Amino acid sequence: MKSVFYLLDTAPYGSEKAFGALNAAAVGLSKMDVILGLYGDGVYLVIAGQDSRKLGVPNLADILYAYGELRVLVHEPSLMERGLFEENFIETLELTDEEDFFESMKKSECVILL
Amino acid sequence: MKSVFYLLDTAPYGSEKAFGALNAAAVGLSKMDVILGLYGDGVYLVIAGQDSRKLGVPNLADILYAYGELRVLVHEPSLMERGLFEENFIETLELTDEEDFFESMKKSECVILL
Amino acid sequence: MKTLTIVLTDGPYISEYADIAYKLAESALEQYKVNIFLYLDAVHIPKKGQNPSFFTNAGQLISGLTEKGAVIRACSRCAGARGYLPEEEIIEGSNCRDYYPGIKITSVYELSEMLSKSDRVISLSR
Amino acid sequence: MKTLTIVLTDGPYISEYADIAYKLAESALEQYKVNIFLYLDAVHIPKKGQNPSFFTNAGQLISGLTEKGAVIRACSRCAGARGYLPEEEIIEGSNCRDYYPGIKITSVYELSEMLSKSDRVISLSR
Amino acid sequence: MKQEQTNVFLLTRPPLNSRSDLCLKLADRTKNVRLYLAGDGVYHLLTKIEEELPECKVYACKEDLEARSIRAGDKVKIPDNFYAMFIEDVMEHSEHTYTF
Amino acid sequence: MKQEQTNVFLLTRPPLNSRSDLCLKLADRTKNVRLYLAGDGVYHLLTKIEEELPECKVYACKEDLEARSIRAGDKVKIPDNFYAMFIEDVMEHSEHTYTF
Fold it and tell me: Which of A22, B65, E80, F90 has the fewest CB atoms within 10 Å, counting from its CB?
């Protein structure tokens, strides 16, 4: 495999899955082309200003900033369905329509859902 | 508590949840009024003729038969949505419309989702 | 004194319910009796030796509740399936050497017992 | 020889993916190299001492695959969080005394290593 | 004067989730509802749940709002100690408690 | 003669599930699809998935059908050894493999 597409469809903080997807994607960067695709509830990760200190869990937005070289695609229809139009988004992410999102999945050699 | 409503909304066999809900409901019978409500994917449990030997997991239909005194309510709209019209159902179950299903939940002193 | 019973079914970290149950129980213990029943994957919550670098140790949290009076029990079928076995001897309030102090493995009948003696019940599961 | 890597994220019993992974790996091992990476809750799968009265022992199943040549590794962060700690000493092919034989705890970097050397990848998670 | 009995709902799932739908359906058929949003339940504020359930008092957990960077509208109450308030409501003033 | 490259999908989720929807959307945009149903994925036969995806070859796992008491229509293939067939397809004849 020279490319991998991690798909995250779980909301951040309610589960370790978002943290796990970010870690797995980040450590893969040195060996492969890695894309993290945010789909369904995974798109909640885009909101800027997350502060998880009082929950005693890692700040996932900070992890996204720390791995600026990681390509993160955001499935726009999932954002729209969830009422995420007026929020500020983390800037490094790429909003993609359904067509482009699925094309990226198909272009990657493998897709991993966590 | 004198009454408990266990709500199962997970498909049988893909997870231990259905087995867990059946066991918890069955052991409660001696102390309380127990209802097991099948909702969403939980309604797949109604199909007669289940044979799980080759999977190496308990036959959940047999457990339902074994606890004939357990009241099991089946949410009919969930059945319809899942295309379960032409199947044979286990006879001891009670099909209920949405109104009655929610009324039963409200009449029980507590609702437990597994 | 009124009694609250909390039923959990998820393991730690993969879901936030161990943390939420801790906060609920901690608040409730100031005035009420609290039971927690660990069912299905929740029997993993009290496993000893957790070292979650970035998260709060869920096993220690929940074990700490027993010092404040919470009664915490794990389902023996679920625990046995996952490799947690009850023993005769009780050490630090636990009958499982794999568990943090204060948490005992008992049968699922204990769940019915807890429920029948409770005023309120909360279940948390993903 | 072609290589298949299977990525798991769920614990045993609560999901059927340990069983499905076993069947996939067993078939694949007849002709191919097989890696299995245990991530998140899947690090519970190899826990020793499982006694699931009504189900097939998932830990023994997966441990048996290593005898047929499968390489099975667990994420060290996920394992450590849940109380499974790697040790220096390797006994029966494992560096964790809580684990069935043949399964080692390694870092998540091993996942990238496995993926980059694989021809096909299958992930199973609920 | 005795406080009126309420029905307390705790919702910890995000929108577009089958358990959230079940919660909202049941709340819709119930009187005197107090809806507590914690965990991923606070994402319902993005879809204005407080306007969908105008009869219902809505509370949200501050730590969960901060972690997820969600702002609450004026109709939503953000208690200083969410869990203490929830527990008091459940134990002392509620007829029924439902958790989704 | 070289066999045509296929795209192999393994679906283990029931209908009305967001991952099933994602699987079907992706399958719909993909050529030469072989859809393998295992686990709770076999419940898709109740909603006639083989008719929704007429271009697609559909296989179902026998043990999973039996456990769940699901009958398969004529268009659905039920291999003697589902996993052996799946693995051969994945390893030897597929361009891509997707699991949902």
Answer: E80
D38/D8 Cα distance (integer angstroms)? 5
pTM of the complete model: 0.97
Give percent of chain A with pLDDT exceeding 70: 100
Domain spans in chain B, listed from the N-terminal domain onward: 3-33+44-113
Residues E1-24: pLDDT tens digits? 456 789 999 999 999 999 999 999
Which CATH architecture does the domain made up of A3-33+44-113 adopt?
Answer: 3-Layer(aba) Sandwich (3.40)
- CATH T-level assignment (fold) for domain C2-124: Hypothetical Protein Ychn; Chain: A, (3.40.1260)
What residues of chain E have any CB closer than 8 angstroms to a CB in chain C?
10, 12, 38-39, 81, 83-84, 86-87, 90-91, 94, 97, 99
Check CB contact of E20 with chain A, cutoff 8 Å. Answer: no
Give first-to-last CA distance, chain D, whole Å: 30
β-bridge mates for residue A16, sequence order: none
Smallest CA–CA distance, residue C63 to chain E, in Å, is 19
Is E1 contained in some domain? Answer: no
Residue F64 lies in a domain: yes
Contacts of C126 in chain A (CB under 8 A): 14-15
Where residue C119 falls among pLDDT bands split at 50, 70, 90? Answer: very high
Q: Which amino acid is at E72?
A: A
In a domain, E42, yes or no: yes
Residue-wise pLDDT for C43-86, tens only, equals 999 999 999 999 999 999 999 999 999 999 999 999 999 999 99
Instruction: Kindly state whether E14 is in contact with chain A, defined as any CB-CB distance less than 8 angstroms.
Output: yes
Q: Which of D22, D27, D55 to mutate to test the interface with F (most CBs of F within 10 A)?
A: D27
Range of the domain at F23: 6-99
CATH number for the domain that contains residue E83: 3.40.1260.10
Q: Could you tell me which chain F residue has the CA closest to the CA of B79?
A: F46
Cross-chain Cβ contact D9/A17 below 8 Å: yes
CB-CB neighbors (< 8 A) of D84 in chain C? 49
What is the rounded end-to-end Cα distance, in angstroms, of chain A?
Answer: 18
Report the candidate in C17, D72, C86, D36 with the shortest Cα–Cα distance to residue E38. Answer: C17
Chain pair C-D, CB pairs under 8 angstroms: 72
Domains of chain C by residue range? 2-124
